[in-house]
Amino acid sequence: MELLRIGVIGTGAIGRDHMRRITNNLSGGVITAVTDVNTEAARGAVEALGIGANIYPDDVTLIGSGEVDAVLVTSWGPAHQKSVLAAIEAGLPVFCEKPLATTAEGCKSIVDAEVARDKRFVQVGFMRRYDKGYRQLKEAIDGGFIGEPLMIHCAHRNASVADSYTTDMAITDTLIHEIDVLQWLIGDEYRSAQVSFPKKSRNALGHLGDPQIVMLETAGGVIITAEIFVNCKFGYDIQCEVVGEEGLIRLPDVSSPAFRKGGVAGNALLMDWKDRFIDAYDVEIQDFIDNVRKNGMPQGPTAWDGFIAQVTADACVRSQQSGEREAIELGVKPELYSGMMQRQV
Ligand SMILES: NC(=O)c1ccc[n+]([C@@H]2O[C@H](COP(=O)([O-])OP(=O)(O)OC[C@H]3O[C@@H](n4cnc5c(N)ncnc54)[C@H](O)[C@@H]3O)[C@@H](O)[C@H]2O)c1
Ligand SMILES: O[C@H]1[C@H](O)[C@@H](O)[C@H](O)[C@@H](O)[C@H]1O
């Protein structure tokens, strides 16, 4: 196949980042079309890269232009569902950043659209499955290295967040990555969620509950505790430790040179999420391009995974308000997605 012609819907932070990697780092794809509700942002993104992509007034026109073989949806979360459904309707493979949609019903409508066509079109941007460290954990767990997993302790810390960040976003924007990657890691399904609020940090704005502790329980009885702390100040810090019957295994920290200076010995920490998973983003987008070119459809995290994440996030947000343990019910997994846990990354 010729180069995969890609249209980008949403040219903000991550949209531009993916455009840069497709143009400069990856192979097999070319950006031929872009759109953004802010036309200047779209123009700026194209000019900054010096590429010849055409700028379209909206997602539907871009999708119907005949200039694209696949679509990247990197707009704001609330706009994802409409663009993804339009791409499926047009028969185009689509990579969609998280969240797939901002409601479980929205995610389900995308699942239903794929099931109706009996074909996968969608890959959701859960890039941690492509991270080397998480893959090493999965390989060890699948190989029985720590025996049956019993507990997982993790932390997702951001140095700071924008003023617009709200308490529910700790779940829908931040924990969503753990929600996806942990069920993939241990091959289990969530059954319940409960959220608690420890003493509030003085560094969090008045409206924001920060930090938070989330407890997730799986069908197999594994208990997961996740600390979400988005004003931790000291850096961007992702921790994950899986405790099994025979041992435990921990996600490696990103390596950085050890230093000794001014009476201190240490290692510098990353401050920005963009740097922490930079290699994983490269691998996930390359995987999307390669599978679409080879098989006409993606193989990465599915629309059903996007649905699982949203249903689980909804239960966590309910628990933020009720303080209670909230049930997670997914219903029956459609045949289209069965057996994918083993095949996909
Ligand atoms: N996988 C990850 O680690 C990761 C990291 C960052 C962001 N994200 C996700 O990516 C998405 C974008 O995040 P961001 O940080 O780039 O946000 P951003 O605000 O920087 O960019 C969003 C862009 O989308 C545009 N937009 C909004 N509605 C649109 C529409 N209907 N059509 C076309 N363009 C539209 C905006 O004008 C803006 O330029 C979010 O859903 C976010 O959760 C994922
Ligand atoms: O959109 C970002 C991104 O998903 C990061 O990976 C996460 O750490 C941030 O909390 C979130 O705001």
Key terms:
345 residues; alpha/beta; Rossmann fold; Dihydrodipicolinate Reductase, domain 2; 2 domains; 7-stranded mixed β-sheet; 6-stranded parallel β-sheet; 38% helix; binds nicotinamide-adenine-dinucleotide; binds 1,2,3,4,5,6-hexahydroxy-cyclohexane; Gfo/Idh/MocA-like_OxRdtase_C; EC 1.1.1.18; NAD; Inositol 2-dehydrogenase/D-chiro-inositol 3-dehydrogenase
Task: Write up this protein.
The chain has 2 domains: 4-128 and 279-302 and 333-343, Rossmann fold; 133-272 and 308-327, Dihydrodipicolinate Reductase, domain 2 (2-Layer Sandwich). The protein is built from 11 helices and 15 strands. It has helices at 13-25, 39-49, 59-63, 77-89, 104-117, 132-142, 169-186, 273-276, 278-295, 303-322, 340-343, and strands at residues 4-9, 29-35, 54-56, 70-73, 94-96, 122-124, 149-157, 190-196, 212-218, 223-229, 237-244, 248-250, 258-261, 264-267, 326-327. The strands form 3 sheets. It has a 7-stranded mixed β-sheet with strand order 12-11-7-10-9-8-15, with helices on one face. A 6-stranded parallel β-sheet has the order 3-2-1-4-5-6, sandwiched between helices. The longest helix is centred in the C-terminal third of the chain and has 20 residues, at 303-322. The protein is globular. Nicotinamide-adenine-dinucleotide binds at residues 9-15, 35-38, 41, 59, 74-77, 79, 97-98, 125, 127, 173.
